[in-house]
Automatic annotation (TrEMBL):
Single GO MF annotation: metal ion binding
Protein name: Fe2OG dioxygenase domain-containing protein
Residue ranges constituting the Non-haem dioxygenase N-terminal domain according to the UniProt record: 56-124
Highest rank taxon of the organism: Eukaryota
Keyword Kinase in record: no
Entry keyword set: Iron, Metal-binding
Chain ranges of the Isopenicillin N synthase-like Fe(2+) 2OG dioxygenase domain: 171-220
Keyword Metal-binding: yes
Native source organism of the sequence: Coptis chinensis
């Protein structure tokens, strides 16, 4: 269901193709054990899973805002070696987070006939859905801008550098519902991929495994409990030109691997291909490299 300001809510059957199926909950309600053959992932495409959740870097945003140099170094290492980190002390009130979780959960619990109704912008049920999403999105926007500032500092630039490059931050929200699955080891909610946004801020259920992070070469759908995740994609305007930053190019070997390209064109080209690792970055590589 398309929503205002790029917001989306979707029910997803776990699939390596990341396709959206409108009646996913109805299919699961009819049979909790049946999984269509085309949703079973090839053995070679399944991630090699190991319990590394305790090793994922944890970044304290309040320390970053206090200009703590050690925390800034942790952020730099997290980006270089993981490309992923958890954020604590972000300042988003627990009430706002819980309200977002509760109202989106209520939406997905609605009868199928109610959920498939398309309005111009927002569903009227649950009645507080619009307010919950707008309040949550406003807080995520604040956190995103703070992170962009600290990322700028970690790369040796002025704090406002990355934010200025965006012209004005665009933000898109996608709320996904992943049903229970009788074959969690054989089915993926989404194929292995890297997002095309500048950064993605993800909120998911605290006590339900499902998210996989690829690290050093090596949780999917859950067998007993459905999962909801809210992904906020932070990106520049479509006409912003993106290219390697001078600070990131080795002065001893100034050859650039990627070309200058408008973000909108880069995004458009990446969406034409199947989500697969970092394959979308090939669209921006120079042909001579």
């Amino acid at each position: 269901m398309e929503m205002e300001n790029g917001n989306q809510m979707s029910e997803q059957v776990p699939t390596s193709r990341s396709s959206v199926v409108a009646n996913v909950q109805e299919m699961v309600r009819r049979s909790t054990s049946y999984v269509p053959e085309n949703y079973i992932t090839n053995q070679d495409d399944r991630p090699n899973c190991s319990p590394v959740s305790s090793d994922v870097p944890v970044i304290d945003l309040s320390l970053l805002d206090g200009r703590n140099e050690e925390e800034l170094k942790k952020l730099d290492l997290a980006c270089k070696h993981w490309g992923f980190f958890q954020v604590t002390n972000h300042g988003v009130a627990e009430e706002i987070l819980n309200n977002m979780k509760d109202t989106t959960s209520s939406f997905f619990k609605l009868p199928f006939e109610d959920k498939k109704k398309k309005l111009e912008y927002w569903p009227t049920n649950p009645p507080k859905l619009k307010d919950a999403i707008e309040t949550y999105s406003s807080e995520v926007n604040r956190v995103a801008k703070s992170l962009l500032g600290h990322l700028s500092l970690s790369m040796g630039m002025e704090k406002e550098a990355l934010l200025a490059m965006h012209k004005e931050v665009m933000q898109s929200l996608r709320v996904n519902y992943y049903p229970t699955c009788s074959m969690p080891d054989r089915v993926l909610g989404a194929s292995l991929h890297s997002d095309t946004s500048s950064i993605t801020i993800l909120m998911q259920d605290d006590d339900i495994t499902g998210l996989h992070i690829r690290h050093d070469g090596g949780a999917v759908t859950n067998k007993t409990t459905a999962r909801i995740s809210s992904a906020s994609f932070i990106m520049p305007y479509h006409d912003v030109e993106i290219e390697p930053l001078d600070q990131m190019v080795d002065p001893q070997n100034p050859l650039k691997i990627y070309k200058k390209i408008k973000y909108g064109d880069y995004l458009k080209e990446s969406l034409k291909e199947k989500l697969e690792g970092k394959a979308h970055t090939m669209k921006a590589k120079l042909e001579t490299v």
